[in-house]
Amino acid sequence: MGKQKKERLHDIIGIACGVFLLIVLVASIISANTTKTVGDANVSADAVTLTGSAPGRNGPVDVEIVADAEKIYQISVTNHEETEGIGTVAVEKLPVAIYENQSLEVDAIAGATITSDAIKAAVVNALESGGLDPAVFQRAVSAAEPVEKTDVELDCDVVVVGAGGAGLTASVLATQQGEDVILLEKMPFVGGNSLRAEGGMNAADTKVEAELGITDSTVENFVDDTMRLGHDLANRELVQTLAENSAEAVDWLFSIDAPLTKVVATGGTTHKYLHKPEDGAPVGEYLVEKLKAQAEKLGIDVRVNTKATEILMENGQAVGVKAEDAEHNYIIHAKSVVITAGGFGSNFELMASYDPSLANAVTTNHAGATGDGIKMAQAVGADTVDMEQIQLHPTVIQQDGTLVSESVRSHGAIIVNTEGKRFVNDLAGRDVVSQAELKQPDGYCFIIFDQHLYDEVELTHKFVERGFAITGKTYEELAQNMGLKGEAVQNFVNTMTTWNESVAKGEDAEWGRNNGMDDDLSTAPFYAIKIAPGIHHTMGGIKINSNAEVISTEGNVIPGLFAAGETTGGIHGGNRVGGNAVCDFIVFGRIAGQSAADFAKSAAVKPAA
């Protein structure tokens, strides 16, 4: 065969391979955003195929149904952009429940209420589009028959309670050390509050920063900023551990195919610590997906819908847990126990016991953040610290508790009140900005950004798609669409002009902001999102030392018991720095996993056979 013919053949083969890979990619994208059709192949002659849509958490949720006036024969979600591991659980399970019960009154999937409600609303819209009465399918659902649970005993080296970021990290690390791990999660999905982290992970002295020419992000500065912004209430030893281990934690993330390659500043700090995914994706979803994949690769026994209820003790040492799911009561024997069950930002009764004003507040926390791990640890003598320190986040959408991440302001957004004016350093500490907002007229404010920032920061897209963003082609039009009246419209125009001039000068003479000023807000169209403070993080929890060992009320280590993540206290003091929670769950998750593995290898008291 001639040289030219061989080259043409190679070209043809290359093109064919490229087309094949493209088809596979497209198919994978489509399959990732759709579900298989649920229902009956035998369809009434009167049935019609109908479609409907409703807004979910991240965008529209589209459904297709086959139905007549009396029965839904088939149902599928044909398109969605819901969060992997949360919304996707509802996408998978709720259509089955609707079909099997022939009712829209089925329970929402725990932790995925917004997506569940969107699916139900989309089905209603589909029925109405075909002239069918949704009321027919709003019948009460019969209570499930009680199940007689089976008693089951399991053995492992390490049992981890709570499959959020800290729990996944601890489980992966302990397994990498050769230990057999069981990971329990009471919710129907893994990820917990970590899935809701949108900004990034703070870290100091990293290789990424060095490659970017960032020289002032030192461990010393990290510690000083964390202590200062936490009102010097944090345990400095724990903060020092957090900072000193942050660079190694970033390296470890690279090793499990979870690189964080962009670095920006975060609220209140003067240095760039915040490490983000290259594509700007929300850091929580990104890391949970990578950690979950690693757990699956390592064959970790992950049990969702399984609630731990009690820590088992023997001779003063933690030797396992009791747990339960819908069909079983478990006794899990282990050589060490790790509590990573999250905070209590959705337990309003507990929060109100420390601050009565929080009883009716909105929260950004997922429904499972009720402090169960803290209570279990207290029951075996664990001490707690900083329980009264409950953080408000300044940029929360009040309709459903959706968080507008600090990273939006880190890229240049500002906050204005209903008088059209800035009133605070927009990137001061979360508590400072929240308290300033609470003093503004009308009890709410707006976060402002432009088309350039929208194009640069992907996570802003969902706010526009879900209808939370107000738009305007000019500053005047945006102000009017925000509902500003009279002088407030001109105030807003003046505010935007002054801000753009400040960015050009590199100095915010009005409020002293010194970061997130790389780009002005001059590219039309312009956007505003109505926001107010909401409960975001509970800084208090189980008392630990720098080895993630749990400390008793008597000041002693409880052998075999470890804890990490938001279930612990002492790391954030009176105010958590944005980006430090992710650093916390990776750094102390790794420490807890390593410590638990080491203890399991040398445990003096072996679990019962």
Using brief descriptors, characterize the structure shown.
609 residues; six-stranded antiparallel beta sheet; 35% helix; six-stranded mixed beta sheet; 26 strands; alpha+beta; disordered N terminus; globular; single chain
**Secondary structure: helix percent:** 25-40%
Largest sheet: 6 strands, mixed
Hey, roughly how much beta strand do the residues contain? 15-25%
Distance between the termini: 71 Å
Shape: globular
Structural class by secondary-structure content = alpha+beta
- Mean pLDDT across every amino acid position: 90
The counted number of beta strands is 26
Helix run count: 18
Low-confidence stretches: 1-32, 604-609
Sheet with the most strands: spatial strand order: 11-7-6-15-25-24
Q: How many whole angstroms does the radius of gyration measure?
A: 26 Å
What are the SSEs and their pairings?
Layout: H1 3-32, E1 38-39, E2 48-55, E3 60-67, E4 72-79, H2 87-101, H3 113-129, E5 150-155, E6 158-161, H4 165-176, E7 181-184, E8 201-202, H5 207-211, H6 219-229, H7 236-244, H8 246-255, E9 262-265, E10 272-276, H9 283-298, E11 301-303, E12 307-314, E13 317-324, E14 328-333, E15 336-339, H10 348-354, H11 372-379, E16 384-385, E17 390-397, E18 402-403, H12 406-410, E19 414-416, H13 430-438, E20 445-450, H14 451-456, H15 461-465, E21 469-472, H16 475-481, H17 487-505, E22 526-538, E23 541-543, E24 549-551, E25 557-563, E26 568-569, H18 580-602
Parallel strand pairs: 5-14, 6-7, 6-15, 7-11, 15-25, 23-26
Antiparallel strand pairs: 1-4, 2-3, 3-4, 8-10, 9-10, 12-13, 13-14, 16-23, 17-18, 17-22, 19-20, 20-22, 21-22, 24-25
